[in-house]
Amino acid sequence: MKIKIIVCISAFILCVSPIFSAYANGTSRYTEHIIRTAEEDKAQSLAEKQIMVGTENGMELDRAVSRAEAVTLAMRTFDVDTKNSASESFSDVPESHWAHSSISYARANDWINGTGDNKFEPERTVSGAEMCKILLAARGDSNITHENAVQTALTSGLFSTEDDLAIASKTELRRGDAAALCNNALSINTIAEFSVPTFAWNIKNLMPDNKNYCFSPYSIKLALAMLANGAHGSSQKEILDALGIDDLQTFNEQTKRRLSEYEKSDATVEVSDAIWLNETYAGYGTFTDAFKNTIAEYYNGEAKTAGKEHIINDINSWVNKKTHEKIPTILSEKENNSLAYLVNALYFKDSWSEPFYEDSTKDDTFHTRDNKKKIIPFMHKIEQLKYYGDSHTQIVRLPYNDYQFSMYIAMSDGSKPLDSYIPKMTYRRVSLSVPKFKQEFGCNLIDMFEKLGIDSCLKPSGDFSPMLRGINEYYVSNALHKAYIDINEKGTEAAAVTAIVMEASSAMPVSLPIYIPFTADKPFSYFIYDENTHEILFLGEYAF
Question: Does domain 358-435 have CATH number 2.30.250.10?
Answer without folding.
Answer: no
